[in-house]
Amino acid sequence: MLGTKKIKELMIPLSEYPKVYDDDSLRDAISSLKAFRAGDNRHRSVLVFSRTKKINNEEKLVGILTVRDILNHIKGKTLSYNGAELFAVSWSRFYHKEPLKKSVVTKVGDVISPLVQAFVQSEQSVTDAIRLMMTKNVNILPVFEGQKAVGVIRGIDLLDYIWDMCE
Fold this sequence. Notes:
InterPro entries: CBS_dom, CBS_dom_sf, CBS_domain-containing. The chain is α+β, with helices and mostly antiparallel strands.
């Protein structure tokens, strides 16, 4: 039955997921994503930890940085303004080094999606993760054991599980 499987049985452990710190740059985050792009591990987000905030003497997970967050930030930094009026978005600037270099020095902590109410506990059922993803409109959820981050569960992992249930 779909609801009997626990999230911990499907989650990706932290060690298998890209990680950066909130005081790292977006360039560091992109580098971390690239380092994990081997085989089936084509992650679309990076877990963001704090070097200064701790939970039981371990670094605290403070947010998730998605590829979309990175692209939206770059887009925002390369728009052309004249006073309050916005001219056409110059997508061609994505292909020029200088605007890109200027936009990727931003600290990850200034761009991340914070963890508000979109997380699960490892002992919760898979249906809880599906419900939360649908109600919060997210594709990835951090997984905790108490207050300690232990992994992530992605929409694609849940879809794979649903497929297996249908076979």
